[in-house]
Design brief:
Number of helices: 2
CATH superfamily: Acid Proteases
Distance between the termini: 19 Å
Strand order of the largest sheet: 3-4-11-5-9-8
Low-confidence stretches: 1-14, 121-127
CATH class: Mainly Beta
Number of domains: 1
Shape: globular
CATH topology: Cathepsin D, subunit A, domain 1
Radius of gyration: 14 Å
Length: about 130
């Protein structure tokens, strides 16, 4: 989980999460299927630099606050991307911050769910 923090920290940080234990869902962005981590406790959504390269997305500057991971670690975003995400016929678009995450390309936080995505449980407890 990440949240915005008003203090500016120049420390380089990597979000370390065991993604095999998280809820994931396949979404489509720019025609490419992506396994996204669903984190409704996250205030912001996060993309990795490798996803930026894969999507050939233009990196924008980030003038917002640094982020604080659930473990208290602070990290200044590397920039931001404007993305449109599709899931089961629904679309949502918004800005995601760019941050190195090992094993995760895209983490979707509350900002995207408030923007129109609606994930509902399917059969057998899947999303």
């Amino acid at each position: 989980m990440v949240s915005a923090d008003e203090e500016d920290s120049r420390e380089a940080a990597v979000l370390l999460i065991d993604s095999s234990r998280l809820i994931t869902e396949e979404v489509v962005c720019r025609g490419i299927r992506i396994k996204a981590v669903i984190d409704t406790g996250a205030v912001v959504s996060v993309a990795s630099p490798s996803l930026q390269e894969k999507l050939r997305a233009r990196r924008m500057g980030w003038d917002g606050p640094s982020v604080v991971m659930v473990n208290g670690q602070r990290a200044p975003p590397l920039g931001a991307l404007e993305l449109e995400i599709e899931h089961r016929g629904m679309k949502a678009s918004g800005k995601v911050i760019l941050l190195e995450m090992r094993g995760i390309e895209l983490l979707l936080g509350n900002d995207f769910f408030q923007g129109g995505l609606n994930l509902q449980r399917g059969k057998k407890g899947s999303w």
